[in-house]
Amino acid sequence: MPSTTRGRVGRAPLAAAAFAVARARDRPSRGLVTGLGITVAIASLFVTTASPLIAGDATLRQALEQVAPARRSIAVAVSVNQQTPAELRAIDTQVRADLLAPGLGAPRSQVEYRALSSGDGTVFRLIGVQGLSDVVTMISGRLPVACTSSHCEVLITGTDTVVTPQPELGIEIVGRAVIDDPGIISGQFRPDPAEVVLLGDDVESVGAIDSLSLIGRSIGWVAPIDPASVRVADIDDLLAAATRTANSFGQVSAAIDLPSRALIEARARADTARRRVALAAAQGVVLLVGFTLLAAASVRRQHRAARDLLRQRGASRATVNVFTLCEAAGPVIVGLVLGVPLGLWASAEIADRWRLDSGDLMGVVARQSALRVAIGTVLVLLATAAVMASEPKPAGRPRRWWQPTAVDALGVGALAMATLALDRGSTTATRLVADGDPLIAALPILAAMVVAWVAVRLVPPLVATTAFLLRRRAPLARTALGEVARRPTVPLVTAGFLAAATTLGLFSLGYRSTLAAGAHDQASFTVPLDLTLTSGAALVRPTAIEPASGWAALAAGTRSTEVLRRGVSVRNRLVANDTVTVVGIDPTSIADLRGWRSDFGLSQPTVAAAITPTATLTPIGAAIPRDTTQLVVHGSGDIALTDIAIVVSRADGSWHSVATKYVSTAPDRVTADLEPTDAGGAVIGFSIGQSGVASDRVQHHDGEGATSAPEFTASLHIDGIEARPSNTAVALDLGGLTSDGATLADTGSGLDLTLTLRGTTALVLPPTPAQLARIAAVVDPTTAASADNGLVTIDVPGQSRMTLRVAAIVNRFPGAPARFAIVDRDDIGRAFDLLDPGYGTPNEVWLSVPRANEAQLATALRTAPYDQLVVSRRTSIERALRDNPLARFTLGLFAVAGLIAGLLAVAALYLATAADAAEQAPLHRALAAEGVAPRALSRMVRTSGAAIAIGAVAVGTVGSLLLLRVVARVIAVTATSTVPVPPLLVSVTASDLLVGVAAITVPCLVAAAVAARGARRAARGDLLREFG
Amino acid sequence: MTERARTPTTLIDLDDVFVLYPILDRQVAALRGLSLGVDAGERVVIAGPSGSGKSTLVSLVTGRVRPSAGTAVVLEHDLTNASARAVMALQRTGVGVITQQMSGNLATELTGIQNAAMQSRMSGRSRRESHRLAAEMLDRLGVGHLAVRPLGTISAGEAQRVALAAALAHRPRVIVADEPTGALDVESANVVFDLLAELSDELDAALLVVSHDPGAGRIGHRVLEIRDGRLGAEQLAGDPTRRLVVDNRGWVRLPESARLRTGIADRAILDEDADEPYTPRPSPSTTRGELVPEDERRRVLGLRSPGNAGTTDLRAATRRDAPVTDDAEAIAIDRVSRSIGSTRILAPTTLVIRRGELVVVSGRSGSGKTTLLGLLGGFAQPDEGTIERAEGLVIAVGTSTPGFAESMSVRENIVLACTVRGLTVDAVLDGTIDAALDAVGMLELASRPVLTLSGGERQRASIVRALAGGAGLILLDEPTSQLDQGLARRVAGYLRASARNGHAIVCASHEPELIAAADRVHSLS
User: Is this complex's ipTM strictly greater than 0.85?
Assistant: First the structure.
């Protein structure tokens, strides 16, 4: 028996590796294309790692820059009355050690005495600052040079402040200065900015002045947070430093001050962005894996021939596998060698553009990406090698397209998983921050698998049908399509990948467009016209400051509409209450709304028509003479026990109740003093409640029983209302009044009222057509679903209830949240006022202004009295959303993801078409020998490539729209990583879609054409070589 | 029962081997109870028709397929039970393989010496040692000058010598050559066969040559014929007598009682000239004889008789038919030559081809046969001389390695060729295609996807395709290189008959059957 183990182990694999290198050197083009594809994918992994870091850091810096400079630090303050200098030194050392954190500057200490008083009674503070000369600019005098326990030189701050400390304090002012560093002597160290401050140099010496030894004082440390260098990754360290510092004082109470909210919000947004980047990163992974596997499949036949040769030469399985690994590693190495530097460079460029320290960032990116890239590379390498080495199916009858395969199991499995995942509900910004969500990363993968499966299933019959239709007219095209349909391994893998890449590419672009439109919506829904005015802290209504006609005077071309916005309750089918916002709006202003979109359900004119009342409101009530300052209600009965208020409609139309006063000396009347705005208004009716005396009686009964009345019951007779000083009667039609809480009887000479109350109020008001006729409302679908027979009953605060009639349904409405009822402003205002006087008064003003005059209007609104209002500008909101770093990164990321998907799709089709051309070379040569022109041969290859491309892109386009719809629904996060208000709505126009489809299809067709030229060259070359 | 008793020097020992493999929806038995023993230093030539199992036998001996049943022992490795590692070790060190296709033997990306050293390196030898052995073998085979040349541009003859070096440089004990001279002319083929014989003697190796080239028998100690996966006949060196294998596993099977009665053990001699077809002459191991039943005899004779090839006596037909040429010239070349660089690949040649003629261009490898076809077909331009083609002449070409739309059936491929020629569907579906397929023995395979066909079947399909398109001039390059003698004869008859129908057919070939059927043979020097 011959020896079968000669030589040394390891030489054969080396020879196999050399063989692989020789092959790569001999035919580099496909390996290079594959390597470039992997390059792009690896670079994108780096960029997707870097982007959220950069975005987070940019967001943090933006947030910190919005914090007042005085608060942009960690400040620690502690009362130190009892400590010895040695103990203070120990505390100082400890605090400085605790405040070591990235992004924090060196702590500067200061000591502050309680407010002191000078001889002339001026209050001042004495503060000692470490390194005084670094934080002040001298105006006059000189810097302090000495501070002992008996005599301490100080500076006085400010340009004109004057103080003369008592001589026995031993404090001498030697100069005047202003403080440059906003971080010190601010915040809790300067509770009253008006106080005079004296500054001494050094903390320990200023804190040890004998004359002030009994005065309470605090020592503080201020470590500035540098927005330019602090990073999201440092926030935990910053917070930990603050916590350590607070804990280091033990029993001593320390006050810690830092902009924690800004820090934590920035981090939360960065985390959200990072987790959402998983969406793009998962796309990158899917595309990378798919592309490399496709590339591997396209060279499998050639590779198998080389493996067979090696086997024929006796190579062991391990050696053959080494050969395969080496062949697979070539493109991967190219991808690594080019992709890693490209990714780092791109990340650094992005960081530089955002003026972030790219050197530091790159370290983090490299650390975070290294493992990911390493694992990905190994997996891709192994998967590629596995595909290249896989055994071809033994020759057999081609499988029928409808016969199930393993791909079906994968596709159905992915579809089932996606369905289950989506059934969990939507992912919100909160969930993203809290624990991330695997759905984010899983969705693109599952979607790609499902779409690829559908493409694999649909493309063969589509191609076969096309081939059938072509049968006699174009035999070559038919043959090419027939080969695709019947020998489908590489074509189908290509179709699947192309469909998946199209889905992910168009999805990326569509999602980007949706997020951008979401930002536009967000601005438009916050400010439906150009500006929105609402009450500020002073609770002054905009309508109280300026009548509707007055806003135009602030800037030419300004138009206004008053809006009534109220939150009401609507009972849903689960017998629980939902909050619905009723927006009363002038129907004619709907046409001016900026954020209206065609996919809301109805057009603006339709919505306006739906809520426009059929009849104008008839005026109600009795006019109040213009000079009236007081109204007198004449009556009898239990006047003393009732609180009678007169419901008045002001001259501007707003309602309110004017309380009356009862004087025992005049028991037949009550009087009400009017506000100036009531003059020229109208008396509408009355509001009647129990008086304090009556309430006491009822409470007494409740407490002791049977000693008084169990409830308030009163009988009143109202004779009429008199206006003073004109002493004219107000012609209120008492007989036309109605009430839910009182029994009314018109006596001809007046009105008899009988009522029983228990802490409530009875309204005595006229009925109105609006109240009787059901106000038409345009509502959202959810609110519409809670309607009963087309009517929605709403509970108005104050235990009143009214009914709206659903006149139309729209998905959303600018200026309203997700749940809304849009109604005619005057109708609903009247109805609300009748239920609760004053509740129907408009509380917002929406303004539109020509763009040229917008700045002028904004300037005017900053002046009194308009400065009492909160002014929201749509353009400002939109700009803020647009310039938000997270938004820019998010949108940019998805744009890049779409671009990469498109590039890989094109590269994939090139590889597949080139492989097809190579595989079909014998057929082409035979056809060339039959006289078929080279151009026809390349057209033949191009036809099959184009058929795959068109079929796959069609499937992928449908898939992208579905994925987009799903993602927009389940990932309820805006581009700025907040909850979208209004909810995201897919925003892809037909023209956008066409452009996107063309952007993928046309380059694919070009790539197929370029690769097909190889068929022409190959056929001709083969013939020439064979016969030349 | 083994073919011969196994001895300590038996390097290949196959006993009752079956090999099944799937094709379409069923399992096909490529070998059906084959028994064969080959000793060290013995040279065995395997012949047989296409599809008889020759290539499967090669795969079996080289360990690339395992027996489905029976035992196969090579170099004392029982391939039925051996581990994959052991089989690979056997392939690496004990076996040298040469095939017909250059791509199967050589990597064109490597130089000659790298190819020749590959198997040594696979067995773990150092690069230096492997290259030394390879260089010796290349020199020994007269292709030392190719050591540092990439192999993309060398001729077929050179490639086959490098392939020999690649297969033998590591000094194997079993040499398997599968159609090693398919692309070579007789002279080159003889050189290769002689080299194989010399080298196997030097290495004291068992040489198994699978070939339908009659010249191969010259170097064999035994020539075995395989039919339907079984041993059909045996011929010993120096003995013109062919002995049919008539045991219960051979192609001709007789009941043991009959063999005992007639004195036939497991061999019988076919006497084709006798009135009684079979004479119970004792073979070396035969003691008694028995008459073969008449129906079996007829079947055997029907298949083996030179004058009765299948259902059509093509030879008779070709003898009867005179050329129908009306002296219409299809193409004429006058002093045409071609060179590549400084190498002249076609000496000045003058040739006139007329319609109705079957012309065979012969000559040794490298003499320019294929180049001449290229010039006739217009695929290459002559350096000098003139070519005159008849007006409107349509040319069709059949290459030695034809390409097809693999998933389409044979018939669909032929229809496609007709369609691209501009023939109407009615014209191509009127039965002429099926008649042509029938003439070359392909009718049963007409509906099969091409990807399931063997090399010989593809070659026959390509001949029909070239002729079906209605071309006036048909150029065929080695159209029978993968066919056995019987099929080659049948195809030659079909070509001759087709020429009689007005085609001008030119074949580049050294196939004797084709040369015999030709109206003219143009020999290139």
Answer: no
